[in-house]
Specification:
alpha+beta, D-amino Acid Aminotransferase, Chain A, domain 1, D-amino Acid Aminotransferase, Chain A, domain 2, eight-stranded antiparallel beta sheet, six-stranded mixed β-barrel, about 25% helix, about 30% strand, binds 2-OXO-4-methylpentanoic acid
Amino acid sequence: MVIHPIERTTTPSAKPVGPVGFGRFFTDHLYLAEHDAQRGWHGDRIVPRHTMPMDLAAGVLHYGLSIFEGMKAHRGVDGKLRIFRPDAHARRFAQSAARLCMPEVDQARFLESIRALVHHDADWYPEAQGGALYIRPLVLATEPFLGVRASSEHLYAVMLSPVASYFAGKDQGGLKLWLEREHTRAAKGGLGSAKTGANYAASLLAARRAQAQGYDQVLWMDANEHRWIEEAGTMNVFVRIGDRVITPPLGGSILAGVTRDSCLTLLRSWGVPVEERPLSIDELAAAESRGELQEIWGTGTAAVMTPVDRLGWENGHIDTKSREMSSRLRVALEDIFAGRATDTRGWMMGVEHETAPSPTPPAPSRGGASASI
Ligand code: COI
């Protein structure tokens, strides 16, 4: 695979000053490639960020034919940038592609595209405490065709965003979740385990209604009985009852979070009893009335580890104040991100090596360097 050209913008944007929030700023460059049946993936390039012309008949615009990922690059205490578990994200991206009948981006292309773009835009890293360079790869169906079938043309793009906390002020302060009993995020057999726009579109009205009640997000229940806990807003959810940590099992409707998996791995390595099993809202309420409900938290790439302070519904609420386990997990992960803890599992991928010049670069169309893997 050759990346050509690797262009640098001649009109760099001003970098944000002050708090960056989440997803409001974008770096100066994009990684792009196209796919069709004849050529497969081709045209890999890094170019200045620009708006994309797209035929209004493209499948992404009508039928939600899109998948995406979210990862972070972190600055280590040695000053180097590293990406957290990109191979796990590559695997999930491929699974999402298969579910939506899209071409898979092979792991080598995925890893090199994000590595090369982060390297190219490294000067956008937000140096404030808690900052990261958020990496957003996506595949869009671009064939202009109104019939409902898999698209024959796709675009692969990667963009970067300097970010801080997803829930401003809540990563230490605690989130309020509304128990959502009417809407569901996803049903078994549907798209819930794929990282696709539809799941996020389905969540908006419930989130808006929760916010109108003074809550931050919703706690999603299963689609059949509205009884089994599934996710917390855009995050996976963990509950500590007594000395046991429980998280719902991946059954098709829940996204297989990389942070979720990392927490399970850390908890097991610490000898904490962990259960991946169905957890009903009745069991949660019973644990609370026995005084055994210790804490609830959400996990995700964007939110990392967000403690939940309150779970509310029409005529009641449960408050949890402990943050013992979620704080321990957050610190452990942040130590791995920053290289303060040894990366014994090979979770961090370095980005700093220079891209090699291509031995056989294609004829330059707009100038710029090239690289190959
Ligand atoms: C993430 O945690 O990376 C997500 O995808 C959640 C949201 C920003 C869509």
